[in-house]
Amino acid sequence: MSDRNPDGSSNQIPEGLRIPSISRRRMMQLSFFGIGAFTAAPLLAACGADSSGSAPKSGGDLTIVRAQDSVDMDKTMVFSNASLWVYQQMYEPLVAMTEDGQGVRPWLAESYEMSDDNLSCTFKLRSDVKFHDGTPMTSADVKFSIDESSATEGGWEFINSAIKEVTTPDDLTVVVTTKYPWAPLLADLSCPNNGVIPKDYGGKSAKEFYAAPIATGPFMWDEWKKGDYIRLKKNGSYWQSGKPALDTVTWKVVPDDNARSIQLQGGQAQINENPPFSSLEQIKANPKLEVNLFPSTRTDYILMNQTKGPYADVHVRRAISFAIDRDAMVKNILFGAGTPANSFMMPTTPYYDENCKGIQYDMDQARAELKQSSVPDGFTTTYLAMSGDSVDSAISQILQASLKDLGITMKIQNVDASAQHDLTGQLQYEIAHSYWTMDLADPDELVQFALDPSSGGHSFQTAYENPELIELVHAAQREFDETKRAELYAQIQQIAADDAFLGFLFYTPFPYAQSADVKNFKVLPTGYYHLEDVTL
Q1: Into how many domains does the chain fold?
Q2: H runs (alpha helix) in 78-138
Q3: pTM of this structure
Q4: Which of 76, 127, 219, 356 could share a disulfide with 493, CB 3.0–4.6 Å?
Q5: Is the model's pLDDT at 15 over the cut of 50?
Q6: What is the residue range of 323's domain?
């Protein structure tokens, strides 16, 4: 299991713990929700997608322009958003995330039921689902798909680490049994890695299959001209009657921000994925275009490495957290589009506690905390910055000025984004900036990675360890009572905030621009989207 540690070291992992590769997942996201969206003033009020009762139009070719190409269509191994958002239109799970990101709903399964001992879940499959080649989907395909992901190494297998076995009592029944009571199970099964494909890859090798995949989704494989575009075409036998409306969907690679905007305004594209905030005012001024700022799970943080300098001292961490002027960051970096963070969990995640006090900007409190610390007269530290990242640069400058007033000299060392990711993962830094987006409708994905050092992520690359919190994390994983689970996560958030294991910065939305002709396009808080309801 050594591949899961960013530093390449191996861990002895206690039974019952999910082993996340989230640092790898975050790395693949860096360029997608990194500097581009934050370069200038955003539009705070924007036109939303039309979900009125008007009859949907049938047909049409949708083009989405984006900065990067996909990496691969292998759902078990690939973490890049540029891949996920394409292959999610083909691979479908048993249950899918709800639009608000707070739970799951039946999808390929028409119903599900947990056992009384919370050790298994029985799924009744829809009887009308067919693969793109016309073959009916059965429980054997579901078992193969989940088992395939569980057996991979270095991919999404950590999501399935609690699963003991998958059995198939009949063609339309699947039973997923866990090693121990596991509250995040349904959310885990909604993850893209558990999308259903034909058993044994439909008689092909895995490599052959993923070069032109077959699944059950509203769109099916058409063509990939690498570096240029991917095109999917309509599944005319989709199990949701009358859907999809679109004939084709094309994701076109246009690296230049201005070129993407020009193509949207010129009608060559209908959706611009992640446009710079600097372009949104101009886009809104065009009556033929619309802008959406979709609520997201993106949260930005200051990392403090507790193996370096004085950062093991809680008073030092609290002093720095009090010295972070979050309002200034939201105003000057996000131009009002974000919200200061009070918790390491985000408002769009289940069990987020709006009553968590967190730590907000207060220089008097910052000075008082530093006076109680092991370095009351201040110290010198080095901020590991991502060169070329305007957000990271602005954060470092605002933080540098505040810490100077506190008596802390913060030097800035610039490295490229890949090196910054590697060095923070290896705990070879002192203080740095990072961020997170969720993949599931359950907080455990983040909470375990951030607070349980045995999970393989060095407690969000900070080396933080609090035995009380670790016990609470494990208790929350096994608690099925919603009220009790909420209480556990409220405790977790408050203790984590008081310990200032991270400096919580701000929450930000996902920006999209689109033609006014596009209807029913919605982005989930994770960044995922469904296109079966979209019309032109």
Answers
A1: 1
A2: 81-87
A3: 0.85
A4: 356
A5: no
A6: 295-509
